[in-house]
From TrEMBL:
<dbReference type="Pfam" id="PF14226">
    <property type="entry name" value="DIOX_N"/>
</dbReference>
<keyword id="KW-0479">Metal-binding</keyword>
<feature type="domain" description="Non-haem dioxygenase N-terminal">
    <location>
        <begin position="58"/>
        <end position="158"/>
    </location>
</feature>
<keyword id="KW-0408">Iron</keyword>
<protein>
    <recommendedName>
        <fullName>Non-haem dioxygenase N-terminal domain-containing protein</fullName>
    </recommendedName>
</protein>
<dbReference type="InterPro" id="IPR027443">
    <property type="entry name" value="IPNS-like_sf"/>
</dbReference>
<dbReference type="InterPro" id="IPR026992">
    <property type="entry name" value="DIOX_N"/>
</dbReference>
<dbReference type="InterPro" id="IPR050231">
    <property type="entry name" value="Iron_ascorbate_oxido_reductase"/>
</dbReference>
<dbReference type="GO" id="GO:0046872">
    <property type="term" value="F:metal ion binding"/>
</dbReference>
Amino acid sequence: MPSRPSLVVKEQPRLIHHPRKNHDLDFQSLKELPDSFAWSSFGDSCSVESGIFGSDTVPVISLDDPKAQQYIGLACKSWGVFQVTNHGIQKSLLDDIEAAGKSLFSLPVHQKLKAARVSGGVTGYGPARISSFFPKRMWSEGFTILGSPLDHARQLWPNDYKKFW
């Protein structure tokens, strides 16, 4: 019997209730930014440490660099994000992934909602899963896919799902 992935959360330090948390994410129909998405400032949540990276841009780390592991640790601590180069992944594969992502997110909202994440679920279409930890909503949409994307692809493209699989 195949096992299903599970999400284990040890602590939820700041769970914020959003009354319309699971509303349709129809970004194209809005004429102005809803107040629930407006962040007045970054406050303490966004700090840039200078030092090894020495700029205000996302760190770019070459996996060919002998200190790559150290740099990744520093980037995680100071930025929470970084770009990796010299990873050995063929450009054609990256181009295919980018095209699949564009195809996926350009679908109309009603189509994407066919693969919506169910309440309490881990996979599917919906807002960022971390959004409940913040006082304001995030202007983003996403698909969380664990394992094979086949089930979600069939929901989104019933007649042409193999291009995404």
